[in-house]
C-alpha cells in the first residue's frame, strides 16, 4: 500500500485500532474548460484495500455524478470527467463501500463479489469471509451492469477455491444453507472464465476426491457401544491435558483446572443441548475470552477435539467464523491440524473418509494456507498422536493433497 494518510474503511467507526484501513482518497484536477477532469492518483491502492478492481469505484463515481469515466490500467490512471471536490468523492466512496463491499450481516469488509447465474438471469452477491453469510447487492444500481460485463478477475487461489467447491459438496453431508448455492457458484464465480478448459479440468479432478477419499481400513471402524464411547471420552480428557504439556501458555501442565481443560469440559457439557451451532460458536468464543486464551494456539487444538461430532461435515461451516477469528499465525494453523489428527485418531474414527472434505473447507475459508497443509501432509509427526495414527490421518488426506498439487501445476502451465 502506498505511503500517506490512512482512514478506517468504515469511516463511521471512530476507533483508531480498527483493523480495516485504506489510504485516504486523493484527487488532482487536470485540464481546462470542457476538457477539465479529476484524476484519482491512488485509486489502485484504495481499491486494493477494498479487494475490488479500481475500475469499480471509479465507475461508481461516474454513475453517481452523471459523468464519463476512463481507466488506463497500464499507466494506473483513473479519471472522472469534470472538476469534483475531493470530499464529495470520499463521501461517494463511503456509499460504494456500503453498497458493494460491506457484508450486510456483520458489516465487515472481508467480502468477495460473486456472480450467480440462473438461466438468463444474473445476480451479484457479497460472499463474506468473516461470518460466512452471502448477502445480495441492489441490482437496480447502474454499476451492476458494469460489474456483470467486467467480472472480478480471480487469482490462482480463488480459482482453486471455486473448483474445490465441487469436491467439498460431493457425496452428501453438505450444509443445508449451501447445497443449492454452491453448485451455481462453482459454475458462475469464474465469470468470463467459466468455460475455460483448465477450470473444467480442475473441477473434474476435484469431483473425484469423493471417490478417492473413501479409504477403508478395518482398524478405523467406529465402535458406538456405550463402553467404547466412554473410553473415547476418557481419551479426550487425556488429550486435553496433553494439549498443554511442554508449552509456553498459561497452565502448561496436566492440571485439570488449566484454562484449556476447563474449555474442553465446558464445550463437551454444553454441546449436546445446542440447536443453533452458529449461536453456540459465539458462546464458545465468549468462553474462550473469559478464560483469557483467545489468542493462544492451544485453544485451537482443544476446540478441534471438543467441538465436532461424527457429523463434522455438516457442522464445520457453522464453526468456520470462530476458527477464522482465532487463527492468526502458522502456529495456530499447525495446532488446528494437530487437533484434526486427535479428532480423527481418538474421538471420531468414522471421520477418516471425509478428512479431505474437512481440509477443503478450512482451505476455502482461508483458514489453512496451502504451504502449511502441504508441509503437514508430507511430514509424519508424533507431536499430537502416535506415529501410526499420524500416518493414517495423512494417508486419508492424500486425495486433497494430490488435488492441491496438480491444480497448482496445471495453473502454472496455463500462465506460461
Automatic annotation (TrEMBL):
MF terms from GO for this chain are:
eukaryotic initiation factor eIF2 binding; GDP-dissociation inhibitor activity; GTP binding; translation initiation factor activity
Q: Where is this region: Disordered?
A: 150-181
A single GO cellular-component term from the record reads: cytosol
Q: Which GO terms describe its biological process?
A: formation of cytoplasmic translation initiation complex
Domain W2 per the UniProt entry, residue ranges: 253-414
Q: Please give the CDD domains that the UniProt record associates with this protein.
A: W2_eIF5
**Stored InterPro entries:** ARM-type_fold, IF2/IF5, Transl_init_fac_IF2/IF5_dom, Transl_init_fac_IF2/IF5_N, Transl_init_fac_IF2/IF5_Zn-bd, W2_domain
Does Ion transport count among this protein's keywords?
A: no
Q: Which UniProt keywords apply?
A: GTP-binding, Initiation factor, Nucleotide-binding, Protein biosynthesis
Q: This protein's superkingdom?
A: Eukaryota
Q: What family does the database annotate?
A: Belongs to the eIF-2-beta/eIF-5 family.
Matches recorded under PANTHER family: EUKARYOTIC TRANSLATION INITIATION FACTOR, EUKARYOTIC TRANSLATION INITIATION FACTOR 5
Provide the protein name: W2 domain-containing protein
Amino acid at each position: 500500500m502506498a505511503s500517506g494518510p490512512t482512514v478506517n474503511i468504515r469511516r463511521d467507526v471512530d476507533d483508531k485500532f480498527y483493523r480495516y484501513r485504506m489510504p485516504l482518497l486523493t484527487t488532482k484536477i487536470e485540464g481546462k474548460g470542457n476538457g477539465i477532469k479529476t484524476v484519482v492518483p491512488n485509486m489502485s491502492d484504495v481499491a486494493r484495500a477494498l479487494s475490488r478492481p479500481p475500475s469499480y469505484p471509479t465507475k461508481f463515481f461516474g454513475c453517481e455524478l452523471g459523468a464519463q469515466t476512463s481507466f488506463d490500467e497500464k499507466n494506473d490512471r483513473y479519471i472522472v470527467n469534470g472538476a469534483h471536490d475531493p470530499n464529495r468523492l470520499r463521501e461517494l466512496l463511503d456509499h460504494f463501500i456500503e453498497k458493494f463491499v460491506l457484508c450486510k450481516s456483520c458489516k465487515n469488509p472481508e467480502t468477495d463479489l460473486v456472480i450467480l447465474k440462473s438461466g438468463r438471469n444474473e445476480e451479484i452477491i457479497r460472499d463474506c469471509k468473516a461470518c460466512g453469510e452471502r448477502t445480495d447487492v441492489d441490482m437496480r444500481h447502474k454499476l451492476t451492469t458494469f460489474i456483470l460485463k467486467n467480472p472480478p478477475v480471480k487469482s490462482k487461489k480463488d480459482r482453486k477455491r471455486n473448483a474445490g467447491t465441487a469436491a467439498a459438496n460431493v457425496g452428501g453431508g453438505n450444509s443445508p444453507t449451501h447445497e443449492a448455492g454452491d453448485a451455481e457458484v462453482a459454475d458462475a464465480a469464474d465469470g468470463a472464465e467459466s468455460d475455460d478448459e483448465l477450470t473444467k479440468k480442475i473441477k473434474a479432478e476435484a469431483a473425484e476426491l469423493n471417490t478417492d477419499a473413501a479409504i477403508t481400513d478395518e482398524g478405523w471402524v467406529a465402535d458406538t457401544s456405550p463402553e467404547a464411547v466412554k473410553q473415547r471420552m476418557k481419551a479426550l480428557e487425556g488429550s486435553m491435558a496433553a494439549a498443554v504439556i511442554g508449552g509456553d501458555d498459561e497452565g502448561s501442565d496436566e492440571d485439570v483446572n488449566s484454562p484449556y481443560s476447563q474449555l474442553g469440559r465446558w464445550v463437551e457439557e454444553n454441546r449436546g443441548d445446542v440447536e443453533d451451532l452458529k449461536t453456540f460458536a459465539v458462546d464458545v468464543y465468549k468462553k474462550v475470552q473469559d478464560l483469557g486464551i483467545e489468542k493462544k494456539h492451544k485453544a485451537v487444538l482443544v476446540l478441534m477435539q471438543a467441538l465436532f461430532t461424527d457429523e463434522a461435515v455438516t457442522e464445520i461451516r457453522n464453526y468456520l467464523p470462530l476458527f477464522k477469528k482465532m487463527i492468526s499465525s502458522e502456529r495456530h494453523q499447525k495446532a488446528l491440524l494437530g487437533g484434526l489428527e486427535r479428532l480423527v485418531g481418538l474421538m471420531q474414527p468414522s471421520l477418516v473418509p471425509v478428512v479431505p472434505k474437512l481440509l477443503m473447507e478450512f482451505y476455502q475459508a482461508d483458514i489453512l494456507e496451502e504451504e502449511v497443509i502441504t508441509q503437514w501432509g508430507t511430514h509424519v509427526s508424533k507431536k499430537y498422536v502416535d506415529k501410526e495414527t499420524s500416518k493414517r490421518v495423512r494417508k486419508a488426506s492424500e486425495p486433497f493433497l494430490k488435488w492441491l498439487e496438480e491444480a497448482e501445476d496445471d495453473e502454472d502451465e496455463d500462465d506460461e
